[in-house]
């Protein structure tokens, strides 16, 4: 069955950096667009970034306006893992960050359990 396991969450100071990882199993990782979403306390889930499944020469990454220029999403299909590099973190980025698979219709059929990122 599909498993997505996030890691790397930690308490970080404003302006600091953190890299999240998502290890995947149970499906053909290289065939899927992967994304990160987040849920801040008391707020709805927000899509953060996504990266397509195309060969690396054609692979595309996209970002929410709120994180553009600060976050970088990447993937390593050989390691069946994708990553979220977060720089210049702000307190309003405090959230649980979750790794998800993503369809072309902006559905997120599979979710990890999330990793906490408090920025304080």
First-residue to last-residue Cα separation: 36 Å
Globally, the shape reads globular
Helix content: under 10%
| Helix/sheet category | mainly beta
Q: Please tell me how large the radius of gyration is.
A: 13 Å
Poorly predicted regions are none
Strand content: 35-45%
Total helical segments:
0
- Number of beta-strand segments: 9
Largest sheet: 5 strands, antiparallel
What strand line-up does the widest sheet have?
A: 5-4-3-8-9
Average pLDDT metric: 95
H-E string? EEEEEEEEE
Give an overview of the whole structure.
- With 120 residues, this protein is mainly β.
- The chain is built from no helices and nine strands.
- It has strands at residues 3-7, 18-25, 33-39, 45-51, 61-63, 71-76, 81-86, 95-102, 115-117.
- It has a five-stranded antiparallel beta sheet, with no helix packed on it. The protein has a four-stranded antiparallel beta sheet with strand order 1-2-7-6, with no helix packed on it.
């Amino acid at each position: 069955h599909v498993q997505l396991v996030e890691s790397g969450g930690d308490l970080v100071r404003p302006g600091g950096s953190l890299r999240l990882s998502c290890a995947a199993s149970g499906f053909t990782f290289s065939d899927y667009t992967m994304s990160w979403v987040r849920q801040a306390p008391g707020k709805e889930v927000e899509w953060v970034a996504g990266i397509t499944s195309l060969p690396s020469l054609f692979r595309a990454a996209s970002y929410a306006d709120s994180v553009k220029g600060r976050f970088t999403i990447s993937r390593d299909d050989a390691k069946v893992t994708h990553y979220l590099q977060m720089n210049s973190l702000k307190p309003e980025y405090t959230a649980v960050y979750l790794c998800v698979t993503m369809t072309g219709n902006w559905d997120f059929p599979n979710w990890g359990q999330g990793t906490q990122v408090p920025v304080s």
